[in-house]
Specification:
CATH class of chain A: Mainly Alpha
Number of domains of chain A: 1
Helix content of chain A: 40-55%
Order of helices and strands of chain A: HHEHHEEHH
CATH topology of chain A: Arc Repressor Mutant, subunit A
CATH superfamily of chain A: Winged helix-like DNA-binding domain superfamily/Winged helix DNA-binding domain
Strand content of chain A: 5-15%
Number of strands of chain A: 3
Radius of gyration of chain A: 13 Å
Shape of chain A: globular
Oligomer: homodimer
CATH architecture of chain A: Orthogonal Bundle
Chain lengths: ~110, ~110
DNA sequence: ATAATACATCAAGATATCTTGATGTGACAT
DNA sequence: ATGTCACATCAAGATATCTTGATGTATTAT
């Protein structure tokens, strides 16, 4: 029960939905997310930790950067179809365009 | 976006998950839910209105009673598979057993 | 009309969640 | 070792959510 509640609570926030939708297109580091979503770094980090706690995403450290991606597990992937309606959302569209055009922090990745 | 957030927020609460899982087995009125979940009536009513607002359930008045059931719409039904893990939850099991054994308010339904 | 039942809604306090700014940690360069 | 960059975590205030008890509404019975 606790696990299920945690999952849905994690998804019940616009910022976290934006993050998940961005990660659908592939791995991203925290600095990319902060610049795409135009939010403070601590705010992004907190939401990432909630998503991670819910089992929706996982992280991978590469040097100074920490990359986040969607959890590839079957159970987690079942959630994504429910997020399909967001594809037509204006904010989601803009977020994606931002990631495609711009990228990265200072130098890499 | 608002719609999606509302949906997941509605599902991110143990009481509401218990209600949804009970309604999976069929229509129930408010008094049946209050006695099954052992909660005050206003509490149940509030959670029902949140689930209804999220489009997960619908209501039907029959005399003094108001019956609630899962929304039969395709989009709504897509959520139910994600609730499958709850079948093994102790609380969910007990809730179901209660509904099967006991029933109803005073006289009908 | 009066009373009773089933339910909805409101108000207020308790609890949890979100946001911001500051501080802490780990990796890398000099 | 010192500094810097990317990120995590903490503390505090703002906001939202949940619970309880009281009140309001609709329907039925008498």
């Amino acid at each position: 029960m606790k696990t299920t509640v945690r999952l849905f609570k994690a998804l019940g926030d616009p910022t976290r939905l934006r993050i998940v939708k961005l990660l659908e297109s592939g791995e991203l580091c925290v600095c990319q997310l902060t610049s795409a979503l135009q939010m403070g770094q601590s705010r992004i980090s907190r939401h990432l930790s909630i998503l991670k706690e819910a089992g929706l995403i996982e992280d991978r450290r590469q040097g100074k950067w920490v990359h986040y991606r969607l959890n590839p597990e079957k159970e987690t992937r079942k959630v994504l179809p429910l997020l399909k309606p967001l594809d037509s959302d204006i904010i989601i569209k803009k977020d994606r365009m931002y990631i495609v055009s711009v990228s990265s922090c200072s130098t890499e990745p």
